[in-house]
Write a structure and sequence with these properties.
Blueprint (H helix, E strand, L loop, with lengths): L4 H18 L9 H8 L3 H7 L3 H21 L7 H14 L1 H8 L7 H15 L11 H21 L6 H17 L5
Length: 185
């Protein structure tokens, strides 16, 4: 079911509100009242869409994960993989506040785990041309993905201080270099 623009705007206000509050304190210390006051949205309206603050954050995470899924699905396209990575990093940069908060290790959300699981699921189900032993693929992909997530977290925590193209090239080259070291002869 497609949501009308008013519903979408209300949900965006609530998400922005909780993200703003998450910058100051953990989710378990944030009340529905605070979220609603900060968003200038009625509590009844909040409960029309969400059961609690955790459902609201989960909805925000879901939106980011869906967009991430779309970028990962494009890895099999004809477009150069580094350009797809750049596109994704531009998306992260545009949404750096929410990524910074959700990727924070002190955050009491499961976003990092959910992001890693999504990426693992997608890359293990695809046919990537990596010439390594089948038994090693899960370990290799886990290291690559967690390294990428940690790099993105560092980048957004540094207020995206390096250009997207620089970060994409660095990540891309590190993966290629690392894979060359473990490829089967």
């Amino acid at each position: 079911m497609k949501e009308n623009r008013r519903i979408q705007m209300t949900k965006k206000l609530l998400k922005d509100s909780v993200i703003e509050l998450l910058e100051k304190k953990p989710l378990n210390k944030i009340t529905i009242k605070e979220i609603c006051e900060n968003a200038d949205v009625n509590r009844t309206t909040f409960y029309k869409y969400y059961g609690d603050q955790y459902a609201l954050v989960r909805d925000a995470e879901d939106a980011l994960l869906q967009k991430t899924r779309e970028f990962l699905a494009n890895l099999n396209s004809e477009k150069e993989k580094i350009l797809i990575l750049e596109d994704f990093l531009y998306y992260v940069e545009e949404n750096k506040d929410i990524f910074r908060i959700l990727l924070d290790q002190n955050s009491n959300t499961e976003f990092s785990y959910r992001l890693m699981s999504l990426a693992m699921e997608m890359v293990l189900n695809e046919e990537y041309q990596i010439n390594i032993k089948e038994d090693d693929k899960t370990y290799v992909y886990c290291m690559i993905i967690m390294g990428a997530i940690s790099t993105i977290a560092l980048w957004v925590n540094s207020d995206c201080d390096k250009p997207v193209e620089y970060v994409a090239k660095l990540m891309f080259n590190l993966v290629l270099f690392g894979l060359k070291g473990i490829e089967k002869p």
